[in-house]
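Bumping my old thread because nobody answered last time. Still need a sequence for this structure:
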């Protein structure tokens, strides 16, 4: 067995792992990065990037349809898929490998597994094992994997998971989607626009995007139905059959759906399988719990960032945690203060910003009304129709949407903001700043929105509040 000493070992070369490596090298430490599959991770090749490449044509088509005087021909699926392939570099991670090596950091291809305190064994495809020893820290950044619900016959029916949807080569004419969250909604709409003429969304709950404000899911469901997608709420799948083709999905109400493919998008879980957690006295199974410095309590050299720690399954939040973690590791390695404000994760507790790139777009930051009340805040909410904002008219006919602000009445600051409407993602960062910095409403009143833009929604929400 080969053996190598290094300051910091990072297991996982996705966006979170790469950011840890970048920060520790910048801080003067040596770093080894272990990756079993593609450097760049799930987001770069199978999630954020390809899904948005598939969704962008749908968004532009909707924009064009709203503006009189513009005409749009049919979407060319082959061209869209080719653009998707370009966006993911044809699943070639050479560019990401170059970036890691130029930090400089050492990239090891293989399965990384904890072997004891500060020890990681890396098993390459040829079975060769390299033992890495960390002088200061080991950082786990292995992400998450899809969850397959225990429905009889589902696993045997060879369902699509998220990777199958984003790497699709041939769009099925009939598509069934199990789930009502972000992946289900985004990929259901994208594949429908690309040729899945019969698309059925089977949602167990009472609405789409169940973790967001209810109005957002309602607007999205209306849009989907108007586009010809069959959205079935309260749908309970009892069994799935697939001897050959098609796949048949049986529901509790006695009905059945036939489809060429079934996409299962019912959530993800931390990728802790065969990570060797038991070798360092940790339970194997759930998220790897960490404190606000991303360190595992009771194990002073072990850290976990991104989906693996269960705090927030969003790429940008994993990258944020990674920046905190990398800087903390450097500070502790060099004997510097490790309790500065920038060295603690405070954003996850407030409610992370998130964008759902559907039509209409849905985005939110902070707490929903339900979450704020559950947390004991003195809550007041205000809502406003985005279509009534002056700038909305210029975005085209039929511009509809809604905004909602959740306010802490005692302190008169925003606890959360949700937007649903065309292109509202560009409104989100202003809300993120206001929520994170806890800007008083009386101060926010003096942040004047430009006319005529949809950002005038801020003025209207504050007027609804009474300012």
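Sorry it took so long. Here it is:
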């Amino acid at each position: 067995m080969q053996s190598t000493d290094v300051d910091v070992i990072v297991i996982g070369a996705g966006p979170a792992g790469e950011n840890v490596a970048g920060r520790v090298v910048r801080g003067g430490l040596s770093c080894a990065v272990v990756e079993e599959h593609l450097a760049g991770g799930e987001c770069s090749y199978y999630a954020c990037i390809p899904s948005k490449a598939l969704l962008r044509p749908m968004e532009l088509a909707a924009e064009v349809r709203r503006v009189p005087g513009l005409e749009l021909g049919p979407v060319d699926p082959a061209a869209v898929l080719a653009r998707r392939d370009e966006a993911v570099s044809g699943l070639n991670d050479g560019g990401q490998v170059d970036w890691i090596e130029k930090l400089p950091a050492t990239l090891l291809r293989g399965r990384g597994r904890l072997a004891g305190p500060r020890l990681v064994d890396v098993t390459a495809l040829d079975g060769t094992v390299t033992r890495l020893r960390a002088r200061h820290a080991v950082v786990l950044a292995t992400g998450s994997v899809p969850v397959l619900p225990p429905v009889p016959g589902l696993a045997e029916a060879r369902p699509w998971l998220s990777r199958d949807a984003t790497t699709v080569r041939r769009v099925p004419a009939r598509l069934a989607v199990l789930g009502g969250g972000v992946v289900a909604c985004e990929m259901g709409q994208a594949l429908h626009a690309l040729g899945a003429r019969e698309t059925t969304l089977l949602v167990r709950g009472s609405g789409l995007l169940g973790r967001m404000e209810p109005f957002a899911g309602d607007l999205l469901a209306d849009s989907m139905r108007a586009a010809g997608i069959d959205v079935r709420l309260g749908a309970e799948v009892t069994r799935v059959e697939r001897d050959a083709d098609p796949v048949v999905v049986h529901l509790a109400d006695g009905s059945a759906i036939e489809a060429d493919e079934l996409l299962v998008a019912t959530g993800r879980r931390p990728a802790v399988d065969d990570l060797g957690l038991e070798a360092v006295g940790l339970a194997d199974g759930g998220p790897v719990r960490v404190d606000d410095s991303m360190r595992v309590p009771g194990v002073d050299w072990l850290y976990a960032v991104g989906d693996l720690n269960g705090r927030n399954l969003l790429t940008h939040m994993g990258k944020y945690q990674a920046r905190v973690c990398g800087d903390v590791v450097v500070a502790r390695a060099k004997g510097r203060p490790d309790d500065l404000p920038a060295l603690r994760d405070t954003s996850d507790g407030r409610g992370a910003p998130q964008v759902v790139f559907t039509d209409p777009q849905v985005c939110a930051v902070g707490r929903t009304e339900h979450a704020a009340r559950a947390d004991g805040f003195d809550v007041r909410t205000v809502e406003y129709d985005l279509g009534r904002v002056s700038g909305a008219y210029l975005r085209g006919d039929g511009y509809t949407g809604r905004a909602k602000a959740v306010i802490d009445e005692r302190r008169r600051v925003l606890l959360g903001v949700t937007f649903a409407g065309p292109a509202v993602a560009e409104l989100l960062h202003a809300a993120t700043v206001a929520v994170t910095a806890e800007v008083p409403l009386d101060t926010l009143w003096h942040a004047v929105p430009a006319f005529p833009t949809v950002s005038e929604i801020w003025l209207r929400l504050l007027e609804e509040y009474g300012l």
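Residues 51 and 166 are 6 Å apart (CA to CA). Let me know if any region looks off to you.
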